[in-house]
Amino acid sequence: MKRRLFLKSAMATSAVATAVGAGLLTPSMVFASSAKFKALSDAANSSAAGAAEGTFKFKAPKIAENGAVVPLSVDAKKLDGVTNISILVQSNTTPLTASFNFTGGAVGFVSTRIKMGKTSPVTALVTSSSGVSAKTSEIKVTVGGCGG
Amino acid sequence: MATIKLKPKAKKGVIKVKAIVKHPMETGLRKDKKGNLIPANHIDHLTITHNGTKVVDADIGAAVSKDPYFQFQVAGAKGDEITLAYKDNNGGSGSATATSK
């Protein structure tokens, strides 16, 4: 029995080693691109904590039947000088999902679709000339039919 | 490589830009049937240009859906040119240009 266990673990470690050797799991490659995004996410998260309740519209479903496609839209057309709209999914390890910077003639409006693994509060963060404001709404993800 | 659908439509001085980019958007956290990690492959940067000036500059995370859909609104009129360009984390990129209707 012990010998089997030993063989099993030996196989497992060698499989990982070959994967690293083949350059499939190069840690620096994985983290290089995400480090910048992580920093952005941390910044957005800290500003969300101190943000005032927003006056813009944040459209999100209360119950998402399919977590792979959750439609969201943020409408801040009534606010002046919108420079950034960010979407944060609170239960993700990297909460920031997308960050849109607006310049020039862009109107403060964005609509997109995100993936969600489980139920979580989702925050929309709008930076305008009058400061940062946020709006949060809880989205329930029901996997496989009946909502709970 | 990837196909981009880009449909700008002008109405009352505002162009509604609807876009779908075909992209797998792998997070790098999922595993295949054998238990090996599927390498990350997702869009991390996207820009919208209106008549040559950049209007939207977005940082996209892996949590955006597969074949991501975006809708933006830009001040402009019929006949203006809208360009969408994206980059993914593996160095891949793509762009599309459309004239507003």
Shape of chain A: globular
Main beta-sheet annotation of chain A? 6 strands, mixed
Give the assembly state of these chains: heterodimer
Number of strands of chain A: 9
CATH topology of chain B: Immunoglobulin-like
Number of helices of chain B: 0
**CATH hierarchy, class of chain B:** Mainly Beta
The arrangement of helices and strands of chain B along the chain is EEEEEEE
Description of the molecule:
The complex is a heterodimer of chains A (148) and B (101). Chain A has 148 residues and is α+β, with helices and mostly antiparallel strands. In chain A, 29% of the residues lie in helices and 37% in strands. Chain A has two helices and nine strands; from the N terminus they run ααβββββββββ. Chain A is globular. Mean pLDDT of chain A is 72; it is low at 16-32. Chain B has a single domain (4-99), classed as Sandwich (Immunoglobulin-like). Chain B has no helices and seven strands. In chain B, the strands form two sheets. In chain B, strands 4-3-6-7 form a four-stranded antiparallel β-sheet, with no helix packed on it. Chain B is elongated. The interface between A and B is large, with 37 and 34 residues.
Please give a quick description of this structure:
The complex is a heterodimer of chains A (148) and B (101). Chain A is of the alpha+beta class. Chain A contains two helices and nine strands, in the order H-H-E-E-E-E-E-E-E-E-E.
State the main characteristics:
heterodimer, A: 148 residues, alpha+beta, Immunoglobulin-like, six-stranded mixed sheet, three-stranded antiparallel sheet, 2 helices, 29% helix, B: 101 residues, mainly beta, four-stranded antiparallel sheet, 7 strands, 0% helix
